[in-house]
Specification:
With 416 residues, the protein is an alpha+beta fold. It has nine helices and 24 strands. 33% of the residues are buried. Bound molecules: zinc ion (ZN).
Length: 416
């Protein structure tokens, strides 16, 4: 069995149960998971129809946790998106499993890194952040300005990044805000914004670089998947429903339209899924450049096949109400490196065939980006003048406890 035994907790209050870290098998359906663990399929019937979408949001290879006693599952925490997770747990008294959506217990870490190359760039990044992916991210960002094979011992590397911490480990995707590499007598900077990357070098000002990059970005937008965008439900990572007293994330936007309305590919790419997907009904998923994936759910009819390449604005299917849906609409999702992002921040503001608007927003962004980049540049220059900083991740370690995680939510199963 493919699992890593991460923590062997002896939770005295809860018999001697074990928490293990597992990886979700590619293509495994939630119902199969229940079956494997001897959980009655009636649990599926108890799941609110609006929650069915989350079962389709479990990403292949995602790390999740199980609490088992005598090899039998008692609890499982399976992430959907980065902020929420499916929680299934057994009510021992009733001998029955429950399903819930709860926030992932993690916190934001804003870290400053500064080291001198010692072993190898990648190893040093890993030692300082515990996240090997940051090294590859930096390499990608510095693609045009730094040859990583030519980095030498004692070259200075510093960067500012944001990372979630879960159980004292890096969790989810990290974001590098700015970086400075001093090599061959030169200062090489990069700055990033929410979705793009800016680079700078010694010869150009931060403002110049940011402006140039914003211009490039504004031309790279995704097009609307439906001509008239009537949003009936917005994107949200984490939303508490005060009446239902439950969390109701919505990892996409719902667009109301008549059955049979054309659905367009938001960008060119390759169809990686075309078919039925649980609560999402008939679905098309398209993989685009730079780690983006778009998803179009509840369609009445698909117009493309898996493996096919599509152009931007090509018809890929038609509005419907398949899967768990109360009426004809498109659930449109956009993912960057497997993380759900708000599609409305990416799709162009005008509808197909109309004049471009939204210039104002770009101007406002520009001012903010330049200010941030300047502040970060000053910070980095100051950092590299001091002593290298030791890795701080030791201090972020937090004990993990499924019981306390659960007890934050006042539910009858507390007294398990
Ligand atoms: Zn939706």
């Amino acid at each position: 069995m493919k699992y890593i035994l991460l923590l062997l907790f002896t939770v005295s209050m809860l018999f001697s149960a074990q928490i293990t870290q597992q990886k979700w098998k590619s293509g495994e359906a939630f119902s199969t998971y229940l079956e494997k663990n001897g959980i009655s399929q009636s649990l599926l019937k108890s799941i609110h129809s609006d929650d069915w979408q989350y079962l389709s949001e479990i990403q292949a290879e995602v790390v999740y946790y199980e609490l088992k006693k005598d090899e039998k599952l008692i609890q499982a925490l399976i992430p959907v998106g980065e902020e929420m997770q499916i929680h299934i747990f057994k009510d021992i008294k009733l001998d029955k499993f429950h399903f819930d959506i709860i926030p992932v217990a993690c916190r934001d870490i804003n870290d400053e890194v500064f080291f001198e190359i010692n072993k190898s760039f990648y190893q040093d990044v890993k030692n300082n952040t515990r996240n090997p992916r940051l090294g590859y991210l930096l390499k990608k960002y510095y693609n045009k300005t730094v040859d990583f094979r030519k980095l030498q011992k004692n070259d200075k590397v510093s960067f500012l990044y944001r990372q979630k911490s879960r159980l004292g480990r890096p969790y989810g995707s990290a974001k590098i805000k700015a970086s400075l590499i001093k090599t061959h007598g030169k200062d090489r900077f990069i700055f990033t914004d929410k979705d793009g990357v800016f680079y700078d070098n010694t010869s150009k000002s931060v403002a110049y670089t940011v402006e140039k990059k914003i211009k490039v970005n504004s031309g790279r937008s995704f097009v609307r998947p439906v001509k008239r965008m009537r949003i009936t439900s917005k994107f949200t990572h984490k939303r508490w429903h005060p009446i239902l007293k439950r969390y109701r994330p919505h990892l996409g936007v719902d667009i109301g339209a008549k059955r049979g309305t054309r659905i367009y590919a938001t960008h060119s790419g390759k169809v990686i899924y075309a078919g039925w997907m649980g609560g999402y009904g008939k679905v098309v998923k398209i993989s685009h450049k730079e780690g983006y994936v778009s998803l179009y759910a509840h369609q009445s009819k698909l117009a493309v096949k898996k493996g096919q390449y599509v152009k931007r604005r090509q018809v890929i299917g038609y509005i419907g109400s398949t899967g768990r849906s109360t009426g004809p609409h498109l659930h449109f999702g956009l993912y960057k490196n497997k993380k759900a992002v708000n599609p409305m921040k990416y799709v162009e503001k005008r509808s197909i065939g109309k004049k471009r608007t939204g210039i104002k927003k770009i101007t406002k962004n520009r001012v903010v980006e330049i200010k941030n980049a300047k502040t970060n540049k000053t910070k980095l220059l100051k950092l590299v003048q001091g002593e290298p900083i030791a890795c701080k991740w030791e201090a972020y370690t937090q004990p993990y406890d499924m019981i306390s995680d659960r007890s934050r939510y006042e539910k009858p199963h507390n007294k398990l």
